Amino acid sequence: MTPDFDKEAAEFHRRRRQRNWAILGALIGLVVLFYFISVARLLRG
Amino acid sequence: MSDTAINDRVGGASAPLDALSGPLHALAGTGQSRSDLAAGSEVRDWITLLKPRVLSLVVYSGVAGLLVAPGHMHPILAITAILCITIAAGAAGAINMWYDRDIDAVMRRTVNRPIPAGRIAPDSALAYGVGLAVFSVALMGLATNWLAAIVLAASILFYVFIYTVWLKRRTPQNIVIGGAAGAFPPLIGWVAMTGSISAEPLMLFAIIFFWTPPHFWALSLFAHADYARAGVPMLPVVAGARETRKQVLVYTVALLPVALSPWIMGFSGWIYGASALLLGLWFLKHAWAVWTDEQDEAGRSLTNDLPAKKCFKYSISYLFILLGMLVVDHLVLT
Protein backbone atom coordinates (compact mmCIF):
# COMPACT_ATOMS: atom_id res chain seq x y z
CA MET A 1 0.00 0.00 0.00
CA THR A 2 1.35 3.39 -0.98
CA PRO A 3 1.32 6.39 1.36
CA ASP A 4 -1.02 8.13 -1.12
CA PHE A 5 -3.51 5.29 -0.84
CA ASP A 6 -3.39 5.45 2.98
CA LYS A 7 -3.96 9.18 2.84
CA GLU A 8 -6.95 8.78 0.51
CA ALA A 9 -8.42 6.04 2.69
CA ALA A 10 -8.03 8.19 5.81
CA GLU A 11 -9.67 11.10 4.01
CA PHE A 12 -12.50 8.83 2.85
CA HIS A 13 -13.14 7.66 6.43
CA ARG A 14 -12.95 11.22 7.77
CA ARG A 15 -15.58 12.42 5.31
CA ARG A 16 -17.83 9.44 5.95
CA ARG A 17 -17.57 9.96 9.71
CA GLN A 18 -18.35 13.65 9.26
CA ARG A 19 -21.49 12.86 7.22
CA ASN A 20 -22.61 10.21 9.71
CA TRP A 21 -22.36 12.68 12.57
CA ALA A 22 -24.31 15.26 10.54
CA ILE A 23 -27.07 12.73 9.82
CA LEU A 24 -27.20 11.72 13.50
CA GLY A 25 -27.45 15.38 14.51
CA ALA A 26 -30.24 15.99 12.00
CA LEU A 27 -32.16 12.95 13.24
CA ILE A 28 -31.85 13.97 16.89
CA GLY A 29 -32.88 17.51 15.93
CA LEU A 30 -35.97 16.14 14.20
CA VAL A 31 -36.93 14.03 17.22
CA VAL A 32 -36.67 17.10 19.47
CA LEU A 33 -38.56 19.24 16.94
CA PHE A 34 -41.41 16.75 16.59
CA TYR A 35 -41.64 16.45 20.37
CA PHE A 36 -42.02 20.21 20.78
CA ILE A 37 -44.44 20.49 17.84
CA SER A 38 -46.62 17.80 19.44
CA VAL A 39 -46.56 19.61 22.79
CA ALA A 40 -47.37 22.97 21.13
CA ARG A 41 -50.29 21.50 19.19
CA LEU A 42 -51.64 19.76 22.27
CA LEU A 43 -51.46 23.02 24.24
CA ARG A 44 -53.33 24.77 21.41
CA GLY A 45 -56.03 22.13 21.78
CA MET B 1 -20.67 43.08 -0.90
CA SER B 2 -17.87 40.70 -1.89
CA ASP B 3 -17.60 39.22 -5.36
CA THR B 4 -18.40 35.85 -3.85
CA ALA B 5 -21.60 37.18 -2.36
CA ILE B 6 -22.54 38.85 -5.62
CA ASN B 7 -21.82 35.65 -7.48
CA ASP B 8 -23.97 33.74 -5.09
CA ARG B 9 -26.83 36.15 -5.70
CA VAL B 10 -26.46 35.62 -9.43
CA GLY B 11 -26.38 31.94 -8.70
CA GLY B 12 -29.95 32.17 -7.53
CA ALA B 13 -30.88 33.01 -11.07
CA SER B 14 -28.74 30.60 -13.05
CA ALA B 15 -30.19 28.01 -15.44
CA PRO B 16 -29.31 25.06 -17.70
CA LEU B 17 -28.41 25.25 -21.36
CA ASP B 18 -29.44 21.93 -22.67
CA ALA B 19 -32.34 20.11 -21.09
CA LEU B 20 -31.55 17.08 -23.19
CA SER B 21 -28.10 16.62 -21.73
CA GLY B 22 -29.65 14.57 -18.95
CA PRO B 23 -28.64 13.68 -15.44
CA LEU B 24 -25.82 11.36 -16.44
CA HIS B 25 -23.42 13.77 -18.06
CA ALA B 26 -21.83 15.14 -14.90
CA LEU B 27 -20.98 11.60 -13.85
CA ALA B 28 -19.65 10.84 -17.29
CA GLY B 29 -17.61 14.02 -17.22
CA THR B 30 -15.91 13.18 -13.95
CA GLY B 31 -15.25 9.53 -14.71
CA GLN B 32 -16.24 8.66 -11.14
CA SER B 33 -18.83 6.21 -9.90
CA ARG B 34 -21.74 7.38 -7.76
CA SER B 35 -20.21 5.94 -4.59
CA ASP B 36 -16.86 7.56 -5.39
CA LEU B 37 -18.61 10.90 -5.73
CA ALA B 38 -20.52 10.46 -2.48
CA ALA B 39 -17.29 9.57 -0.71
CA GLY B 40 -15.75 12.82 -1.95
CA SER B 41 -18.47 15.06 -0.57
CA GLU B 42 -18.14 17.03 2.62
CA VAL B 43 -21.06 18.07 4.80
CA ARG B 44 -20.51 21.63 3.57
CA ASP B 45 -21.12 20.48 -0.02
CA TRP B 46 -24.60 19.33 0.95
CA ILE B 47 -25.19 22.67 2.64
CA THR B 48 -23.89 24.49 -0.46
CA LEU B 49 -26.54 22.69 -2.52
CA LEU B 50 -29.16 24.59 -0.53
CA LYS B 51 -27.73 27.99 -1.66
CA PRO B 52 -27.40 29.22 1.94
CA ARG B 53 -26.71 32.89 1.04
CA VAL B 54 -29.90 33.15 -0.98
CA LEU B 55 -31.80 31.72 2.00
CA SER B 56 -31.18 34.81 4.14
CA LEU B 57 -33.75 36.86 2.20
CA VAL B 58 -36.17 33.94 2.18
CA VAL B 59 -36.00 33.59 5.95
CA TYR B 60 -36.19 37.34 6.50
CA SER B 61 -39.22 37.90 4.26
CA GLY B 62 -40.94 34.79 5.63
CA VAL B 63 -40.47 36.07 9.20
CA ALA B 64 -41.79 39.49 8.13
CA GLY B 65 -44.93 37.88 6.65
CA LEU B 66 -45.44 35.89 9.83
CA LEU B 67 -44.93 38.87 12.15
CA VAL B 68 -47.27 41.30 10.38
CA ALA B 69 -50.08 38.75 10.04
CA PRO B 70 -52.93 39.07 12.55
CA GLY B 71 -53.32 36.36 15.16
CA HIS B 72 -51.15 34.41 17.53
CA MET B 73 -49.10 31.30 17.09
CA HIS B 74 -47.09 29.18 19.52
CA PRO B 75 -43.41 30.21 19.09
CA ILE B 76 -42.37 26.62 18.38
CA LEU B 77 -44.91 26.39 15.56
CA ALA B 78 -43.81 29.79 14.20
CA ILE B 79 -40.16 28.68 14.22
CA THR B 80 -41.19 25.44 12.53
CA ALA B 81 -43.04 27.39 9.82
CA ILE B 82 -39.93 29.46 9.13
CA LEU B 83 -37.83 26.29 9.16
CA CYS B 84 -40.18 24.76 6.57
CA ILE B 85 -39.94 27.83 4.32
CA THR B 86 -36.14 27.71 4.62
CA ILE B 87 -35.89 23.98 3.88
CA ALA B 88 -38.28 24.29 0.95
CA ALA B 89 -36.27 27.15 -0.55
CA GLY B 90 -33.07 25.15 -0.04
CA ALA B 91 -34.66 22.10 -1.64
CA ALA B 92 -35.72 24.15 -4.66
CA GLY B 93 -32.15 25.47 -4.85
CA ALA B 94 -30.75 21.93 -4.79
CA ILE B 95 -33.08 20.83 -7.59
CA ASN B 96 -32.09 23.97 -9.51
CA MET B 97 -28.42 23.06 -9.12
CA TRP B 98 -29.20 19.53 -10.32
CA TYR B 99 -30.95 20.81 -13.43
CA ASP B 100 -28.44 23.57 -14.14
CA ARG B 101 -25.31 21.47 -13.71
CA ASP B 102 -24.51 21.65 -17.43
CA ILE B 103 -24.34 25.45 -17.54
CA ASP B 104 -22.82 25.61 -14.05
CA ALA B 105 -19.93 23.64 -15.49
CA VAL B 106 -19.17 26.34 -18.08
CA MET B 107 -19.70 29.43 -15.94
CA ARG B 108 -16.64 30.60 -14.02
CA ARG B 109 -18.49 31.52 -10.84
CA THR B 110 -20.40 28.21 -10.61
CA VAL B 111 -17.84 25.71 -11.84
CA ASN B 112 -16.82 24.88 -8.26
CA ARG B 113 -20.32 23.99 -7.14
CA PRO B 114 -20.55 20.44 -5.74
CA ILE B 115 -22.14 18.83 -8.81
CA PRO B 116 -20.02 20.31 -11.65
CA ALA B 117 -16.93 19.90 -9.44
CA GLY B 118 -17.76 16.18 -9.16
CA ARG B 119 -18.11 16.05 -5.39
CA ILE B 120 -21.81 15.11 -5.38
CA ALA B 121 -23.50 12.84 -7.91
CA PRO B 122 -26.39 14.50 -9.80
CA ASP B 123 -28.93 11.84 -8.86
CA SER B 124 -27.97 12.13 -5.19
CA ALA B 125 -28.50 15.90 -5.37
CA LEU B 126 -31.89 15.41 -7.00
CA ALA B 127 -32.99 12.86 -4.40
CA TYR B 128 -31.79 15.19 -1.64
CA GLY B 129 -33.73 18.15 -3.09
CA VAL B 130 -36.94 16.22 -3.68
CA GLY B 131 -36.72 14.56 -0.25
CA LEU B 132 -36.29 17.88 1.52
CA ALA B 133 -39.11 19.44 -0.52
CA VAL B 134 -41.57 16.69 0.39
CA PHE B 135 -40.45 16.79 4.02
CA SER B 136 -40.85 20.58 4.30
CA VAL B 137 -44.36 20.54 2.82
CA ALA B 138 -45.50 17.68 5.06
CA LEU B 139 -44.03 19.31 8.16
CA MET B 140 -45.64 22.66 7.30
CA GLY B 141 -49.04 20.96 6.98
CA LEU B 142 -48.66 19.08 10.25
CA ALA B 143 -47.28 22.02 12.25
CA THR B 144 -49.43 24.89 10.94
CA ASN B 145 -52.16 24.36 8.36
CA TRP B 146 -52.57 22.62 5.02
CA LEU B 147 -53.25 25.80 3.03
CA ALA B 148 -49.78 26.99 4.01
CA ALA B 149 -48.41 23.60 2.94
CA ILE B 150 -50.16 23.90 -0.44
CA VAL B 151 -48.77 27.42 -1.02
CA LEU B 152 -45.32 26.17 0.01
CA ALA B 153 -45.57 23.27 -2.45
CA ALA B 154 -46.74 25.70 -5.16
CA SER B 155 -43.69 27.90 -4.54
CA ILE B 156 -41.32 24.94 -4.99
CA LEU B 157 -43.10 23.73 -8.11
CA PHE B 158 -43.13 27.27 -9.54
CA TYR B 159 -39.40 27.73 -8.99
CA VAL B 160 -38.48 24.33 -10.38
CA PHE B 161 -40.84 23.94 -13.32
CA ILE B 162 -41.90 27.45 -14.33
CA TYR B 163 -38.63 29.23 -13.70
CA THR B 164 -35.78 26.69 -13.85
CA VAL B 165 -37.07 24.29 -16.46
CA TRP B 166 -39.32 26.46 -18.59
CA LEU B 167 -38.42 30.15 -18.54
CA LYS B 168 -34.82 30.52 -17.61
CA ARG B 169 -33.24 29.30 -20.83
CA ARG B 170 -35.97 30.49 -23.13
CA THR B 171 -36.76 34.14 -22.48
CA PRO B 172 -35.04 37.29 -21.23
CA GLN B 173 -38.19 37.85 -19.19
CA ASN B 174 -37.18 34.85 -17.03
CA ILE B 175 -36.37 37.16 -14.12
CA VAL B 176 -39.74 38.92 -14.25
CA ILE B 177 -41.96 35.84 -14.05
CA GLY B 178 -39.40 33.80 -12.14
CA GLY B 179 -39.30 36.58 -9.58
CA ALA B 180 -42.65 35.35 -8.34
CA ALA B 181 -40.88 32.33 -6.86
CA GLY B 182 -38.89 34.59 -4.56
CA ALA B 183 -42.03 36.52 -3.63
CA PHE B 184 -43.72 33.54 -1.99
CA PRO B 185 -42.07 33.51 1.50
CA PRO B 186 -44.00 36.44 3.09
CA LEU B 187 -47.22 35.03 1.65
CA ILE B 188 -46.45 31.61 3.13
CA GLY B 189 -45.58 33.18 6.48
CA TRP B 190 -48.89 35.02 6.49
CA VAL B 191 -50.91 31.93 5.52
CA ALA B 192 -49.11 29.84 8.16
CA MET B 193 -50.28 32.33 10.77
CA THR B 194 -53.83 33.01 9.55
CA GLY B 195 -54.79 29.95 7.52
CA SER B 196 -56.15 32.21 4.76
CA ILE B 197 -55.04 34.40 1.84
CA SER B 198 -56.12 38.05 1.74
CA ALA B 199 -55.09 41.29 0.02
CA GLU B 200 -52.35 42.19 2.51
CA PRO B 201 -50.00 39.25 1.88
CA LEU B 202 -50.59 39.66 -1.85
CA MET B 203 -49.23 43.21 -1.51
CA LEU B 204 -46.08 41.79 0.10
CA PHE B 205 -45.90 39.30 -2.75
CA ALA B 206 -46.22 42.16 -5.28
CA ILE B 207 -43.47 44.20 -3.61
CA ILE B 208 -40.90 41.41 -3.97
CA PHE B 209 -42.21 40.59 -7.44
CA PHE B 210 -41.59 44.15 -8.68
CA TRP B 211 -38.33 44.46 -6.76
CA THR B 212 -36.75 41.42 -8.42
CA PRO B 213 -36.27 42.77 -12.01
CA PRO B 214 -34.32 45.94 -11.11
CA HIS B 215 -32.34 43.95 -8.52
CA PHE B 216 -31.22 41.22 -10.93
CA TRP B 217 -30.92 43.34 -14.04
CA ALA B 218 -28.68 45.82 -12.23
CA LEU B 219 -26.54 42.82 -11.33
CA SER B 220 -26.69 41.37 -14.83
CA LEU B 221 -25.31 44.62 -16.29
CA PHE B 222 -21.93 43.90 -14.74
CA ALA B 223 -22.07 40.11 -14.45
CA HIS B 224 -23.48 38.93 -17.76
CA ALA B 225 -20.30 37.55 -19.31
CA ASP B 226 -20.90 34.15 -17.71
CA TYR B 227 -24.49 34.09 -18.92
CA ALA B 228 -23.41 34.93 -22.45
CA ARG B 229 -20.87 32.09 -22.31
CA ALA B 230 -23.55 29.68 -21.08
CA GLY B 231 -26.17 30.94 -23.55
CA VAL B 232 -28.69 31.95 -20.89
CA PRO B 233 -30.86 34.70 -22.40
CA MET B 234 -30.42 37.34 -19.71
CA LEU B 235 -31.66 40.75 -20.82
CA PRO B 236 -28.23 42.39 -21.39
CA VAL B 237 -27.18 39.38 -23.48
CA VAL B 238 -30.31 39.41 -25.64
CA ALA B 239 -31.49 43.03 -25.74
CA GLY B 240 -28.31 44.88 -24.85
CA ALA B 241 -27.19 47.06 -21.97
CA ARG B 242 -29.21 50.14 -22.99
CA GLU B 243 -32.53 48.25 -22.91
CA THR B 244 -31.55 46.70 -19.57
CA ARG B 245 -30.87 50.15 -18.10
CA LYS B 246 -34.29 51.28 -19.28
CA GLN B 247 -35.98 48.24 -17.75
CA VAL B 248 -34.21 48.80 -14.42
CA LEU B 249 -35.62 52.33 -14.35
CA VAL B 250 -39.13 51.28 -15.49
CA TYR B 251 -39.47 48.58 -12.85
CA THR B 252 -38.07 50.84 -10.13
CA VAL B 253 -40.71 53.45 -11.02
CA ALA B 254 -43.40 50.75 -10.92
CA LEU B 255 -42.10 49.48 -7.58
CA LEU B 256 -42.68 52.81 -5.83
CA PRO B 257 -46.54 52.77 -5.81
CA VAL B 258 -46.55 49.01 -5.21
CA ALA B 259 -44.35 49.45 -2.12
CA LEU B 260 -46.61 52.25 -0.92
CA SER B 261 -49.78 50.17 -1.40
CA PRO B 262 -49.86 48.70 2.15
CA TRP B 263 -49.93 52.27 3.50
CA ILE B 264 -52.35 53.57 0.83
CA MET B 265 -54.75 50.68 1.51
CA GLY B 266 -54.56 51.25 5.26
CA PHE B 267 -52.82 47.99 6.03
CA SER B 268 -49.84 49.79 7.57
CA GLY B 269 -49.21 53.13 9.28
CA TRP B 270 -47.18 56.26 8.62
CA ILE B 271 -43.90 54.72 9.78
CA TYR B 272 -43.99 52.26 6.93
CA GLY B 273 -45.48 54.79 4.48
CA ALA B 274 -42.74 57.36 5.07
CA SER B 275 -40.03 54.67 4.95
CA ALA B 276 -41.37 53.21 1.71
CA LEU B 277 -41.48 56.65 0.11
CA LEU B 278 -37.93 57.62 1.13
CA LEU B 279 -36.45 54.22 0.32
CA GLY B 280 -38.27 54.18 -3.03
CA LEU B 281 -37.07 57.65 -4.00
CA TRP B 282 -33.51 56.64 -3.12
CA PHE B 283 -33.90 53.50 -5.23
CA LEU B 284 -35.12 55.71 -8.09
CA LYS B 285 -32.02 57.88 -7.72
CA HIS B 286 -29.84 54.78 -8.16
CA ALA B 287 -31.90 53.53 -11.12
CA TRP B 288 -31.64 56.96 -12.73
CA ALA B 289 -27.86 56.85 -12.27
CA VAL B 290 -27.83 53.46 -14.03
CA TRP B 291 -29.89 54.90 -16.90
CA THR B 292 -27.68 57.99 -17.29
CA ASP B 293 -24.38 56.19 -16.72
CA GLU B 294 -21.65 57.25 -19.13
CA GLN B 295 -21.88 54.69 -21.92
CA ASP B 296 -20.85 53.88 -25.47
CA GLU B 297 -23.20 53.57 -28.47
CA ALA B 298 -24.22 50.03 -27.45
CA GLY B 299 -25.04 51.17 -23.93
CA ARG B 300 -21.97 49.56 -22.36
CA SER B 301 -20.71 51.42 -19.33
CA LEU B 302 -17.59 53.54 -19.54
CA THR B 303 -17.42 53.72 -15.74
CA ASN B 304 -16.92 50.00 -15.04
CA ASP B 305 -20.67 49.80 -14.25
CA LEU B 306 -20.22 51.63 -10.98
CA PRO B 307 -23.84 52.92 -10.88
CA ALA B 308 -25.19 49.40 -11.60
CA LYS B 309 -23.04 47.96 -8.80
CA LYS B 310 -24.28 50.63 -6.39
CA CYS B 311 -27.88 50.07 -7.49
CA PHE B 312 -27.57 46.32 -6.96
CA LYS B 313 -26.11 46.72 -3.48
CA TYR B 314 -28.73 49.27 -2.54
CA SER B 315 -31.57 47.05 -3.81
CA ILE B 316 -30.65 44.44 -1.20
CA SER B 317 -30.61 47.01 1.61
CA TYR B 318 -33.86 48.45 0.25
CA LEU B 319 -35.81 45.23 0.66
CA PHE B 320 -34.35 44.39 4.06
CA ILE B 321 -35.09 47.86 5.44
CA LEU B 322 -38.54 48.06 3.80
CA LEU B 323 -39.72 44.75 5.28
CA GLY B 324 -38.08 45.65 8.60
CA MET B 325 -39.97 48.94 8.72
CA LEU B 326 -43.22 47.12 7.93
CA VAL B 327 -42.66 44.91 10.97
CA VAL B 328 -41.65 47.89 13.15
CA ASP B 329 -44.73 49.80 11.99
CA HIS B 330 -46.92 46.81 12.82
CA LEU B 331 -45.36 46.32 16.27
CA VAL B 332 -45.42 50.02 17.19
CA LEU B 333 -48.75 51.15 15.77
CA THR B 334 -50.98 48.13 16.43
Index terms:
heterodimer; A: 45 residues; mainly alpha; 1 helix; B: 334 residues; Tetracycline Repressor, domain 2
Explain the layout of strands and helices.
The complex is a heterodimer of chains A (45) and B (334).
Chain A: H1 3-44
Chain B: H1 3-11, H2 25-30, H3 34-40, H4 43-48, H5 52-68, H6 75-99, H7 101-104, H8 122-143, H9 146-167, H10 174-194, H11 199-222, H12 225-230, H13 235-238, H14 241-264, H15 270-291, H16 306-333
Helix pairs in contact in B: 5-6, 5-10, 5-16, 6-8, 6-9, 6-10, 8-9, 9-10, 10-11, 11-14, 11-16, 14-15, 15-16
Major sheet summary line of chain B:
none
| Helix-strand string of chain B | HHHHHHHHHHHHHHHH
Instruction: Give helix and strand order of chain A, one letter per element, not per position.
Output: H
Helix percentage range of chain B: over 70%
Kindly, what is the distance between the CA atoms of the first and last residues of chain A, rounded to a whole number of angstroms?
64 Å
Q: Return the CATH class of the largest domain in chain B.
A: Mainly Alpha
End-to-end Cα distance of chain B: 35 Å
Q: How many domains of chain B?
A: 2
**Helicity range of the residues of chain A?**
over 70%
- Any low-confidence stretches of chain A, pLDDT <50, length ≥5? none
Which CATH-level-2 architecture of the largest domain in chain B?
A: Orthogonal Bundle
3D structure, described in words:
- The complex is a heterodimer of chains A (45) and B (334).
- Helices cover 93% and strands 0% of the residues of chain A.
- Chain A has 45 residues and is mainly alpha-helical.
- Chain A has one domain.
- In chain B, helix 15 packs antiparallel against helix 16 (306-333).
- Chain B has 2 domains: 1-193, UbiA prenyltransferase (Tetracycline Repressor, domain 2, Orthogonal Bundle); 198-334.
- With 334 residues, chain B is mostly helical.
- Chain B has 16 helices and no strands.
- Chain B has helices at residues 3-11, 25-30, 34-40, 43-48, 52-68, 75-99, 101-104, 122-143, 146-167, 174-194, 199-222, 225-230, 235-238, 241-264, 270-291, 306-333.
